[in-house]
Specification:
GO terms for molecular function: transmembrane transporter activity. It contains 14 helices and two strands, in the order ββαααααααααααααα. It is mainly alpha-helical. A hairpin with a 2-residue loop joins strand 1 and strand 2.
Amino acid sequence: MRRRAALRRGGLSLAVDLRAAAVTAALCAAGLAGVVLHVGVGEYPISPPDVLRALLGLTSGEENYAFIVNALRLPRALVAFLVGAALALSGAILQGLTRNPLAAPEILGINAGAGLAAVTLIVALPSVPAALVPPAAFAGAVAVAGALYLVAWRGGSSPVRLVLIGVGIGAVATALTTIMITYGEIEQVSQALVWLTGSVYGRSWEELWTLLPWLVAFGALALLRARHLNALSLGDEVAAGLGVGVERERGVLLLCSVALAAAAVATAGTVGFVGLMAPHIARRLVGPSHGGLLPAAAATGGTLVVVADLAGRVAFAPLEIPCGIVTSAVGAPFFIYLLYRSKDVK
């Protein structure tokens, strides 16, 4: 029997799974430790105690520490954590909605749509300011999600149709992106390839304050709908029998998933496989109930991307590998492992 604590305030009440809360707190602590290590690594190394002193505004042996930590390195580490958290939340929602353990933003074509829009802007319209690439990527992800839902609609949506049509739309978007890259000018193609690999290099407080409201708003909305997501993950008939408005809740949760993935991809490019791996790791730790799974997945995804970016910085220093390459190198074998374990694959 899982131990739970009831929180009541006014007319609202919330049952908290104590084990899930403890695991999520431990994952957040691991993520914070990763951020401290991430901030301390670089051409000008800073020890973890000095990083903590700089973060807390305390004096240290070097006057430059506060500037290096707070202005140069901390925003990149925090953006990495938020990007991972957003992708993980998006993947956890999609896996619950589709009842498919292989569902993730990149599998359903959402990342591919963002990539196509960004590459089109970079390669075909090089005179357009680079600042418009993230909004274009966001619009591409939303457009693909809208097309996915419309094409899958047959008097109602279906998890199987959403997955199959998402894979098809993603393949088309990827093919169009390849065509754009093949026939583009080498300078623009190089820029597009860097964006497609997924990287948080050079990200600043501006990107962080842009991404954070999306994560807070749609993450909180998804958490408030966790009870409905639990019901939908049992099947449409069971959910309807429990009094859940199936199509309404599926639409709201799909909106949350798309918004989170789109905001993350618009910030850091197509960082692959985080939305697939993090929910599985979190599910092993806290169980399948989405009330505990969603925050645990967010903490797991954030920690994964921070560690991936840190590994990309130190593995072949002074060269840096984009964090998207590191997550793909780990995520691709993990995806094959999930396929092998799937009961549906003979």
